[in-house]
């Protein structure tokens, strides 16, 4: 695996465990165009990496991932070709997570919002620090939850509760997320690294092929669902990215005020 081809992701090996770390800590690991492109290929590369059997995904610094970077959003308004590229990469991110035979453990060290939440929730097992918050606030910036949230949230916590959170953009605490079944385990931050490592070691010593093929079997139905829903959700997110409300949300963020939505 050519780690040198990645600028915004760090990698660390421990035996057959490979940790992938989002590395824009100064921006709370918010995703810009360059990081999005790297995420669209990293899990394909991980799948082919001969030196690993287990993947841990985490973030550098105090956040897991704060979602989409505001200047990147503006670039997709200014040049629609940027949105077309992003939509293609969004599908690659989701399907590479689902198709990677190796178990992927999300180590949610801090807040995971928007696409950050999607990344975590499409992992196979999710551990989170008790101070973390998780949510998909696409609607808060005038966007449809198109990059995978509309696929995974209903499957994990049911349609009614998923709509409650996706319609409002409200974040939930990691403790709430565990109680709702959105994530597997929550624990104090100082215990998170060891908990993820211990579980990864357990899988590392297991029957590798049986574990891999169990993952693929479980994900087969979810993959079929994603193939259907993503076409619709990304199309609607593309439409919403061209609305006045989305531009207003970006301007309001820059002006440090609440957006005034008009439904246009």
Descriptive key words:
single chain, 264 residues, alpha/beta, 2-enoyl-CoA Hydratase, Chain A, domain 1, 6-stranded mixed sheet
Give a topology summary:
Elements lengths: L8 E6 L2 E6 L10 H16 L5 E6 L10 H9 L1 H20 L4 E5 L3 E2 L1 H7 L3 E5 L3 E3 L13 H9 L1 H10 L3 E2 H7 L4 E3 L1 H16 L3 H33 L3 H12 L9
Parallel strand pairs: 2-3, 3-4, 4-6, 5-7, 6-9
Antiparallel strand pairs: 1-2, 7-8
Helix pairs in contact: 1-3, 2-3, 3-9, 5-6
- Our Rg estimate from Cα atoms comes to 18 Å
Order of helices and strands: EEHEHHEEHEEHHEHEHHH
Strand order of the largest sheet: 1-2-3-4-6-9
Major β-sheet annotation: 6 strands, mixed
Mean pLDDT: 97
Helix content: 40-55%
Top CATH class? Alpha Beta
What's the CATH H-level superfamily name? 2-enoyl-CoA Hydratase, Chain A, domain 1
| Quaternary | single chain
Task: Summarize the structure in words.
The structure is a single chain. The mean pLDDT is 97. The radius of gyration is 18 Å and the shape is globular. The strands form two sheets. It has a six-stranded mixed beta sheet with strand order 1-2-3-4-6-9, with helices on both faces. It has ten helices and nine strands. The chain has helices at 33-48, 70-78, 80-99, 115-121, 149-157, 159-168, 174-180, 189-204, 208-240, 244-255; strands spanning 9-14, 17-22, 54-59, 104-108, 112-113, 125-129, 133-135, 172-173, 185-187.
What's this, in brief?
By secondary structure, the protein is α/β, with parallel strands linked by helices.
């Amino acid at each position: 695996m050519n780690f040198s081809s990645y600028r915004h992701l760090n990698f660390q090996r421990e035996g057959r465990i490979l940790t992938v770390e989002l590395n824009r800590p100064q921006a709370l690991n918010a995703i810009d165009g360059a990081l999005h492109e790297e995420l669209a290929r990293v899990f394909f590369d991980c799948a082919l990496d001969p030196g690993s059997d287990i993947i841990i995904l985490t973030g550098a610094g105090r956040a897991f991932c704060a979602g989409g970077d505001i200047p990147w959003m503006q670039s997709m308004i200014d040049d629609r070709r940027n949105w077309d590229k992003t939509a293609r990469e969004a599908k690659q991110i989701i399907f590479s997570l689902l198709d990677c035979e190796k178990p992927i453990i999300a180590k949610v060290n801090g807040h995971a919002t928007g696409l950050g939440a999607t990344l975590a929730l499409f992992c196979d097992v999710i551990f989170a620090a008790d101070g973390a918050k998780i949510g998909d606030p696409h609607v808060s910036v005038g966007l449809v939850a198109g990059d995978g949230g509309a696929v995974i949230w209903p499957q994990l916590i049911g349609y009614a509760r998923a709509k409650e959170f996706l319609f409002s953009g409200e974040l939930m605490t990691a403790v709430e997320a565990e109680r709702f079944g959105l994530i597997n385990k929550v624990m104090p931050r100082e215990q998170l690294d060891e908990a993820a490592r211990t579980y990864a070691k357990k899988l590392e010593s297991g029957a590798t092929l049986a574990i891999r093929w169990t993952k693929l079997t479980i994900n087969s139905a979810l993959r079929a669902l994603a193939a259907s829903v993503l076409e619709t959700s990304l199309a609607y997110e593309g439409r919403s990215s061209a609305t006045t409300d989305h531009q207003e949300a970006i301007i309001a963020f820059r002006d440090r005020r609440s957006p005034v939505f008009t439904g246009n």
